[in-house]
Amino acid sequence: MNKTRLWLVLRREYLSIVAKKSFILTTLLVPFLIVSIGFAMGLMMVLNEAEGDHVAVIDQSGRYGACLENTSEYIFEMPSDYNVGNMRQKFANDEESDDYDRPPYYAIVVIPATLDSTLQVNVFSSSPTRSSLREVIEDQLSKAVSDTRVASYGIPELDRIIKDSQVQVAVRTNTWSDDGDTSVTSDELMSVIGLALAFLTYMFVLTYGAMIMSSVVEDKVNRIVEVIVSSCKPVELMLGKILGVALVGLTQVAIWAVLIGIGLMVLGGLGIAGSMDASSFDAGAVGAAADMAADSELGDMIHAILGVKWLQCFMRRFLPHSARRLTSRAMPISL
């Protein structure tokens, strides 16, 4: 294999892609597009939490309707003019009417009189409701029914006894390294990392593989490939194209890293990052927060992230088995 010819093919492939307007626009606009989508999603979440959806409650039991407490997402109300017979018509009229002092109801919760025995409530709406509404209703009504049953036994301090007996054992997984140190690990974290790496690999293969395919098709259509093959080997041509596209990908990643760094510098210059200066925090508060983080699941997650051997994880997932055996002689892999 002639390295000079390989370099010429690689250089031509790299420059032909980088000089395209589509590459420049994609490289510059993708970070801003991702940031804009994230900002829009965050803004929508904040607006939804700020407004809160109104939910009508029809309490046929006469006891559990008041147990539904308002949250940041939902505001529970018990309108006196709503009942099981007219709730559908009332709900439709509220949605179509423009003359009301409050927003239309998002859904209607019907608490039956036999809730103690059936342990089931019904939610009605004109469209599928969010799962968070079901979770809020289940948590609050389950607690209310449990408290009612406990109180019906008439045993003094039975509630406290039950709460004291309900414990949950936490399991912390640890990994021994080759040098004898022990680090905290997380199976869930490793699964998330594996899925993220698989998704990124799929996206890179799909994107840059399409670039190689379009380059080969373009050379074939323009009949340039016949001239090139007469001067170099097909292996040199294909390898040069692959390496050229790989350098294009590295160039895009480098540009995105620079843009992110510039964005952080701009935020710091505007004083946004300066508000997080360590001098603005009380030393005692920081120490207490660190102690709490060390004893919590968040602290375990942080230690697990810091304890991940990223290079070895990448090699174990993406390198062939034969290459892993050769590499493991110089750097043993233990995940």
Notes on the protein architecture:
This protein has 335 residues and is an alpha/beta fold. It is built from 13 helices and 6 strands. The strands form 2 sheets. The protein has a 4-stranded mixed β-sheet with strand order 2-1-3-4. The chain has a two-stranded antiparallel ribbon with strand order 5-6. A hairpin with a 5-residue loop joins strand 5 and strand 6 (182-185). Helix 7 (187-221) packs across helix 9 (234-269). It is elongated, with a radius of gyration of 31 Å. The two termini are 38 Å apart.
> Approximately how much helix is present in the residues?
55-70%
The total strand number stands at 6
Provide the β-strand percentage band. Answer: 5-15%
> Structural class, please?
alpha/beta
Distance between the termini: 38 Å
**Number of H/I helices:** 13
Largest beta-sheet details: 4 strands, mixed
Shape: elongated
Low-confidence stretches: 272-295, 320-335
Mean pLDDT: 76
User: What is the radius of gyration?
Assistant: 31 Å
- Order of helix and strand elements from N to C terminus: HHEEHEHEHHEEHHHHHHH
Spatially, the strands of the biggest sheet line up as 2-1-3-4
